[in-house]
Amino acid sequence: MKNIIEVDALEAFYGDMQALFGVSLTLAEGECLALVGANGAGKSTILRALTGLNRKLKGRIAYQGKDITTTSAEVIARSGIAMVPEGRMLFASLSVEENLLMGTLTRRSGPWTLARVYELFPVLRERARQMAITLSGGQQQMVAIGRALLSNPRVLLCDEISLGLAPVIVGQIYDSFGLIRAEGTAVIVVEQDIKRALAVSDRLICLLKGQVTLEFDAAVADMDRLTTAYFGG
Ligand SMILES: Nc1ncnc2c1ncn2[C@@H]1O[C@H](COP(=O)(O)OP(=O)(O)O)[C@@H](O)[C@H]1O
Ligand SMILES: [Mg+2]
């Protein structure tokens, strides 16, 4: 499969603080890649670099063969990389439907419509007129995913979408990935739950202190090596 994203020797900075130290990774068309690693390892920083939210970078990020290392977040969103951010970032006092429609601001042509998002998450249709803040955490996460899908992304980045949610809801949310991936969308998930990450992804990358410490196919997971890569040692 062709790579849709290629990250080469990426360094990222917050002010003087360096968060990534030479991260290289690839994402193939239609692939699901899981990023795992302890708190502060740099997972969100990678996603923020890919979406243009952090531009204090060295190295290179290519998307569909084009260098996007200095491209603005707005242009990147319009070109088909969408993020479900950590903490969801919904507008609390807008309705579910209004929040979903925010995703259409950077809309490209493609399979995802409001009707299809409601098919994916039927509970959102029932709650369409309610304010987002009145929803459960899991339902809010569905809104955040639906909003990202409405831009019709080629690449969907999901940052800790299961954090703090009940296992049943987490199961429902990851079940939706089948349909999302059936549209050919490539996905990167940042996931604390290693078992979940293995189950949902084709490939895993483990980060430690801003560096890639291990990369392997989800089908051949070696938990001992992963533990070392995760915690160091
Ligand atoms: N806004 C920020 N300002 C300063 N440092 C930050 C900021 N965001 C993250 N960091 C630092 O960058 C490193 C990587 O953080 P992050 O990418 O959020 O890790 P993860 O998502 O893996 O938990 C950490 O040392 C963190 O403290
Ligand atoms: Mg994070």
Molecular structure report:
- The chain has 233 residues and is α/β, with parallel strands linked by helices.
- The protein has one domain (3-231): Rossmann fold.
- Helix content is 33%, strand content 28%.
- The chain has ten helices and ten strands.
- It has helices at 43-50, 73-78, 96-102, 114-120, 122-126, 137-149, 167-175, 177-182, 194-200, 223-231, and strands at 3-14, 17-28, 32-36, 57-63, 66-67, 81-84, 155-159, 186-190, 203-208, 211-217.
- A six-stranded mixed β-sheet has the order 6-7-8-3-9-10, sandwiched between helices.
- Helix 3 runs parallel beside helix 6 (137-149).
- The longest helix has 13 residues, at 137-149.
- The relative contact order is 0.19.
- It binds adenosine-5'-diphosphate and magnesium ion.
- Adenosine-5'-diphosphate binds at residues 14, 17, 19, 37, 39-45.
Q: What portion of residues belong to β-strands? A: 25-35%
Alpha-beta classification: alpha/beta
Q: SSE string, helix = H, strand = E?
A: EEEHEEHEHHHHEHHEHEEH
Summed over residues and divided by their number, the pLDDT gives a mean of 94
Tell me the number of structural domains: 1
How many beta-strand elements?
10
Number of helices: 10
| Major sheet details | 6 strands, mixed
Would you give the CATH topology? Rossmann fold
Q: What is the CATH domain class?
A: Alpha Beta
- Morphology: globular
Low-confidence stretches: none
